[in-house]
TrEMBL record:
Keyword DNA repair: no
GO terms, biological process: pyrimidine nucleobase metabolic process; pyrimidine nucleoside metabolic process
GO cellular component: cytosol
Pfam families per the UniProt record, alphabetical: Glycos_trans_3N, Glycos_transf_3, PYNP_C
Native species: Actinomyces slackii
Subunit relationships: Homodimer.
Gene behind the chain: pdp
Name the record gives this protein: Pyrimidine-nucleoside phosphorylase
Enzyme Commission identifier(s): 2.4.2.2
InterPro entries, per the entry: Glycosyl_Trfase_fam3, Glycosyl_Trfase_fam3_N_dom, Glycosyl_Trfase_fam3_N_dom_sf, Nuc_phospho_transferase, PYNP-like_C_sf, PYNP_C, Pyrmidine_PPas_bac/euk, Pyrmidine_PPase_CS
Family the entry assigns: Belongs to the thymidine/pyrimidine-nucleoside phosphorylase family.
Keyword vocabulary terms for this entry: Glycosyltransferase, Transferase
Annotated ranges, domain Pyrimidine nucleoside phosphorylase C-terminal: 338-411
Spans annotated as Disordered: 392-411
Length: 411
């Protein structure tokens, strides 16, 4: 095979053959196809697309570059959730222990934030001592019936290594937001992870990759088909990401809000999405549980008990106070009225610039940085009332966080 022929074929709108796909993914992972060649191929795919059979083969080829985990020896169902990424999306934190309460093991292999979207591991690292990297043996031990039954940890470098390289390349070549490439990227990792059931939370709106409903629906359908073909019971929900989820965006702030949910309280939208996803995961695992029973497990502390055990097993202290930002700034309403919109992308960018996210993959994040929201769309507000509190460890960053144009700021 010759990389140039494969690039030219896709450039000219042809289908790639199975053996061409297998070769190019493997050769790229081994370093035998150059970065500039894969960049050109990614752009050709971005512009020309791939059909379902090509996407399925591309996904399979990426899985084949690494290891596949297998939890069948646990003797209990496994279910995972994947969100395509948003602002204030801390759902994994209450969701994994909640599902575990009902006897379905949750291997939640997670990632870090990039750009304005938060990452689950960055959030959990706000907890003193908590460790993201676990061995496969540690992961399995946490999923057994005598453990917490759920684990949230870093996806090891052995899962779909082709995707790791390709994702970094796409990030720097304007080839991220393309259905075939996103679907194969996400599903290669999730299929390699070995989960029995998978629920996809496909976000739509300003704060999501997919801004339009038809794109989001196409992504969801593609991923569900890839999962089903690989023997994973896969379902998808399309959920709104035009407004942030809950009342916080930022690492420690989102852990604090998740603890409220695990204590039976918390913002309504976060609770409702947690319940909806938990119901879907349990149903897809053949253990349907009613919403009232799910709410009861949040209210009576069963989910919280699982959470505390999960955190302790990863060397975190569930009782340690969360870090608090040394600098805050409050943005108040300029007039009486009703809050009509709170843009997810704007809030995400503000949290990112305050230090909650990173500009480059290797940058550190601040645990304390982020945005607390005091009102959501539809709420009546009075002049002078606090709308947002900005948090950071580096006050010079206040200037970089775009506030809502006419708001008033107070140190
Ligand atoms: N998340 C991924 O893992 N891959 C993508 O391509 C986009 C989002």
């Amino acid at each position: 095979f010759d990389a140039v022929d494969i690039i030219a074929a896709k450039r000219d709108g042809q289908r790639l053959a199975d053996d061409q796909i297998d070769w190019v993914i493997d050769a790229y992972t081994r370093g035998a196809v150059a970065e500039e060649q894969m960049s050109a191929l990614a752009m050709a795919i971005y512009l020309r697309g791939m059909d379902r059979a090509e996407i399925a083969r591309w996904t399979r080829a990426m899985i084949e570059t690494g290891e596949r985990m297998d939890f069948t020896a646990l003797g209990r169902p496994t279910a995972d959730k994947h969100s395509t990424g948003g602002v204030g999306d801390k759902i994994t934190l209450p969701l994994a222990p909640l599902v575990a309460v009902f006897g379905v093991a949750v291997p939640q292999l997670s990632g870090r934030g990039l750009g304005h979207t938060g990452g689950t591991l960055d959030k959990l690292e706000a907890i003193s001592g908590w460790r993201a990297a676990l061995s496969n043996e540690e992961i399995t031990a946490m999923l057994r019936a005598d453990g917490p039954g759920a684990v949230i940890c870093a996806a090891g470098s052995g899962l779909a290594p082709a995707d790791r390289r390709l994702y970094a390349l796409r990030d720097t070549t304007a080839t991220v937001s393309c259905v075939p490439l996103i679907a194969s990227s996400i599903m290669s990792k999730k299929i390699a992870e070995g989960t029995g059931a998978l629920v996809l939370d496909v976000k739509v709106g300003s704060g999501a990759f997919m801004k339009e409903m038809d794109q989001a629906r196409e992504l969801a359908t593609t991923m569900v088909e890839l999962g089903q073909d690989a023997g994973v019971t896969t379902r998808a929900l399309l959920t709104d990401m035009s407004t942030p989820l809950g009342l916080s965006a930022g690492n420690a702030l989102e852990v604090a809000e998740s603890l409220e949910v695990l204590a039976g309280a918390g913002p309504r939208d976060v609770v409702e999405l947690t319940i909806a996803l938990a119901a879907e995961m349990l149903d897809a695992s053949g253990r349907p549980i009613g919403e009232d029973e799910l709410r009861a497990a949040l209210a009576d502390g069963r989910a919280m008990d699982r959470w505390r055990e999960m955190i302790r097993r990863q060397d975190g202290d569930p009782d340690a106070p969360l870090p608090v930002a040394p600098h805050t700034e409050v943005i108040t309403a300029p007039a009486d009225g009703v809050l009509t919109a709170l843009d997810a992308l704007a809030v995400g960018v503000a949290a990112w610039r305050l230090g909650a996210g990173r500009a480059r993959k290797e940058d550190p994040v601040q645990a304390v940085a982020g945005v607390q929201m005091h009102a959501k769309p539809g709420d009546a507000v009075r002049a002078g009332q606090a709308l947002l509190t900005l948090h950071t460890a580096s006050p010079e960053r206040f200037e970089r966080a775009p506030g809502p144009g006419r708001g008033h700021r107070h140190q």
